[in-house]
Amino acid sequence: MSPALAAAARRLAEAGVESPRVDAELLAAHVLGVGRGRLVLIDTVRGDELLRYEELVELRARRVPLQHVLGTAAFRHLELKVGDGVFVPRPETELLAGWGIEHTAAGATVVDLCSGSGAIALSVADEAEPALVIAVERSPEALVYLRDNARPFASVRVEPGDVTDPNLLSDLHGRVDVLLCNPPYVPEGTPVPPEVADHDRAMAVFGGADGLSVIRPVIKLAAALLRSGGVVGIEHDDVHGDDVPALLRADGRFTDVIGHIDLTDRPRFATARRV
Ligand SMILES: C[S@@+](CC[C@H](N)C(=O)[O-])C[C@H]1O[C@@H](n2cnc3c(N)ncnc32)[C@H](O)[C@@H]1O
């Protein structure tokens, strides 16, 4: 295996892929249908498998996201189906999902706004015992993946909708226990790698000129949806470590506002409690 693996890692490094060796190994494991840890036991790859491997390496070298090439993305305990038209869940979002899981009591009603592939909503359904998780998404292309990923989870209801609509889920206003949201939040014009620029939809990534154009209405909607004592967690750009907590405080309907950092010590999400 190692000559093919070494050649692939070199090709990916030349193409500017950030983690060429890991990606080369994951692609090899995918083609061979084994876990990455078992690759050391395979000394070579030939024939059709080698051709298939070279094809996939070439796709990745053209900066197609690794998860699009594999067709799945790992998120906490889940393998989510992903591909063209749906945002690939990022490792940093596992922290917001974990916070949401910790705050979900048995029987809770949970809302995940901007649900994408369903990473947050489905993790809550998988790891906590909510009565109902509502996953809201606007993009028709993302909704296809969301519905597919949500199928095994009886507590999850997929709701097409626009999270900037103040009347969204009006039947649930004042009744939600936990509201989570990883919205598009990158300020327009921020340089992004080719994987993002060419393969994530702009509506999944950019949040207007200052990056806060979806977060502002989401805070208003959270205040309307949450019951007294219910909690909200919103992921944000690392440049918004002061702005999002300030917006939550300025709304006047939240208390216990806290900013949280991610695994690289960058400000990443803000949480608060409905008064
Ligand atoms: C950053 S992605 C997050 C996806 C998923 N929550 C995750 O963490 O992987 C943002 C998602 O919000 C959706 N979105 C953008 N604007 C929206 C809106 N106004 N209403 C509903 N969904 C929206 C995008 O289509 C995209 O799927």
Automatic annotation (TrEMBL):
Annotated SUPFAM superfamilies: S-adenosyl-L-methionine-dependent methyltransferases
One BP annotation, GO: methylation
Any matching Pfam family: PrmC_N
InterPro entries the UniProt entry points to: DNA_methylase_N6_adenine_CS, HemK-like, N5-glutamine_MTase, PrmC_N, RF_methyltr_PrmC, SAM-dependent_MTases_sf, Small_mtfrase_dom
Top-level taxon of origin: Bacteria
EC identifiers of the protein: 2.1.1.297
GO MF annotations in UniProt: methyltransferase activity
Binding site for substrate: N182, P183, P184, Y185
Domain Release factor glutamine methyltransferase N-terminal: 4-71
Reaction catalysis annotation: L-glutaminyl-[peptide chain release factor] + S-adenosyl-L-methionine = N(5)-methyl-L-glutaminyl-[peptide chain release factor] + S-adenosyl-L-homocysteine + H(+)
EC category name: transferase
Protein residues bound to S-adenosyl-L-methionine: E137, N182
Methyltransferase small domain mapped to chain residues: 106-186
Alphabetic keyword roster: Methyltransferase, S-adenosyl-L-methionine, Transferase
Gene3D superfamilies given in the database record: DNA helicase RuvA subunit, C-terminal domain, Vaccinia Virus protein VP39
HAMAP family: RF_methyltr_PrmC (MF_02126)
Family: Belongs to the protein N5-glutamine methyltransferase family. PrmC subfamily.
Function: Methylates the class 1 translation termination release factors RF1/PrfA and RF2/PrfB on the glutamine residue of the universally conserved GGQ motif.
Full protein name: Release factor glutamine methyltransferase
Organism: Winogradskya humida
Taxonomic lineage from the root: Bacteria, Bacillati, Actinomycetota, Actinomycetes, Micromonosporales
